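Input (structure):
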């Protein structure tokens, strides 16, 4: 095979890979809640696996997550619907108490949690923030 042809095939392959990766990343975004939220705080009452036949079940990735967390990701204005949260670049061994350092004002050089994180506990952080590698 001549070189330009191989290069062309490689480019096509890379493009395909890019499109497939982009499509997968897209499906991992949380769907927005489109229904009225009034009187519907207990999301799991309807969305728990098997709770109501016609309602979409929470996927397996959600095991153990409480109703109070759902809107952090599924609110139509949630940043999780459009951006990837910053990764944890540091070692996490022995650092389970994230807020000890990241609570606003806790430690001068440590980046503070933003205002929209109010009410989130250290046990919640890794639902969204994952180690860099
Ligand atoms: C009274 C039952 C009920 C409660 C409570 C409820 N939902 Fe729903 N939800 C529904 C129904 C019915 C639909 C539409 C059918 C479907 O897509 O499952 C729906 C749809 C959704 C969808 C779209 C799913 C999809 O397939 O695109 C999301 C996301 C969602 N709800 C999240 C929530 C969140 C978050 C809460 C809590 C704040 C909540 N729901 C509370 C009944 C409920
Ligand atoms: C950390 C972000 C996050 C939180 C918190 C969260 N979700 Fe999700 N949810 C997602 C993502 C991302 C998906 C799609 C990928 C997947 O299946 O995990 C999803 C998928 C779903 C689906 C399936 C929608 C569909 O179109 O198939 C339902 C229903 C749902 N979530 C409901 C809930 C409920 C109820 C809660 C609270 C108990 C909740 N989610 C909490 C991120 C989140
Ligand atoms: C002992 C203090 C300490 C603890 C505990 C700690 N961190 Fe950090 N974290 C830091 C410091 C310092 C930085 C900034 C320098 C760096 O990235 O190493 C940082 C950076 C981060 C960043 C990057 C922020 C950005 O803007 O890029 C995230 C995300 C993060 N930490 C999440 C966590 C999570 C989640 C936990 C708990 C599992 C945690 N941290 C526990 C000190 C801490
Ligand atoms: C539901 C998902 C979610 C959860 C849970 C969550 N975060 Fe975040 N975090 C984000 C997103 C998205 C951003 C990007 C900023 C924004 O909200 O627009 C962010 C930003 C940050 C930043 C960067 C602030 C900066 O200025 O660079 C830090 C630090 C952080 N989070 C720490 C934490 C800690 C500590 C916890 C647990 C107490 C936590 N996060 C829980 C989604 C989440």
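Output (sequence):
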């Amino acid at each position: 095979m001549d070189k330009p042809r191989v290069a062309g095939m490689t480019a096509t392959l890379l493009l395909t890979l890019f499109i497939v990766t982009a499509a997968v990343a897209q499906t991992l975004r949380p769907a927005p809640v489109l229904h009225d939220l009034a009187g519907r705080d207990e999301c799991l009452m309807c969305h728990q696996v098997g709770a109501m036949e016609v309602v979409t079940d929470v996927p397996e990735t959600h095991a153990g997550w409480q109703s109070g967390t759902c809107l952090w990701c599924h609110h139509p204005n949630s940043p999780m619907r459009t951006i990837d949260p910053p990764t944890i670049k540091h070692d996490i061994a022995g650092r389970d108490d994230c807020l000890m350092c990241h609570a606003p004002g806790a430690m001068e050089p440590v980046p503070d949690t933003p205002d929209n994180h109010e009410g989130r506990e250290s046990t919640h952080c890794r639902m969204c923030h994952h180690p860099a590698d």
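Notes: Residues 72-73, 79-80, 83, 85-86, 98-99, 102, 111, 113-114, 116-117, 120-122, 124-125, 127-129 surround heme C (ligand 4) (CB under 6 Å). Residues 68 and 128 are 15 Å apart (CA to CA).
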